[in-house]
Amino acid sequence: MSTIATSKAPDVSSRPTSRRISWGRIGAYALLLVFAVIYIGPLLMLVITSFKTLPEFMKSATALPTTINVRNFVEAWNKANFLRYMTNTLIYTVSATAIYVVTAVLVAFPISRGYVKGAGILLTLYVIALFLPVALIPQFQLMLSLGLYNNPIGYIMLFLVNPIGVVILVNYIKTLPLELDEAAAMDGCGYFRFVISIIFPLISPAIATIAVLHAIGIWNELILPTIYLTSKDYYPITRGMIVFQGVYGSNWPTLAAAVLIMTLPMLVLFLVLQRYIVSGLTSGAVKG
User: Fold this and answer.
1) What span, in angstroms and rounded, lies between the C-alpha atoms of 115 and 104?
2) The dihedral sign for the CA sequence 160, 163, 168, 171
3) Same domain, 50 and 132
4) Count helices and strands in the chain by DSSP H and E runs
5) What is the pTM of this model?
6) pLDDT tens digit string along 156-190?
7) Residue 113's Cα: distance from chain center in Å?
């Protein structure tokens, strides 16, 4: 008896299903690419310009350099009094940031724990201060009356108050268990010793975050040194760049090299502390 072979229907489910084109995802990536070009484009042009010679720049400002010219960096460093300006800026930034971080933690800790009366009102006032403009005229009159005008110490004191750091620290410290305070009190640990030896290491992401934000703000500040520092010996790098542009304003490649030198320290600081910044900002801004 002959057997009739029956052909099986092909299993459609075993075929690889073709992925549907996600136009929404493609549009999102395209939008991110546009924003990346808009953001990175000027920086890339700055780098390209810094390696050009002046004739190359005058011939075509957007073309790539034919040779890598590092003489612009040497000229910017040697002829623009760059070492003094960078040293002044480093002193202002490090000293003001260190004092600010210590004082901000000492202020934020009792507010976050409620160890002072009206802690919630104080925190609300710090939040309101974020939206208030800087009172330059009363500040200027105060600096004159205290004899701190054209004074490096007075200039540093301008950066010792910043409400955003206190707000971040208060909300971050609230995430720490209260049992730490009780255990330290039972062991006879003093207040300042507890804050310095226990609280400081536990809130290192928040400290790194406010330190980077505060240091970048001081490093890039232009208005305050223009108003309060009149002596060239006290100029920070931003104020000194105005003098540099006045002397070498036609040499744009050298000026671009000077701007890159100015941004290098803050770029290194950000790269070193970047792993702390996201966790410090999210915990300090959301929780609490």
Assistant:
1) 15
2) positive
3) no
4) 15, 0
5) 0.79
6) 999 998 899 999 999 899 988 888 888 888 888 88
7) 28
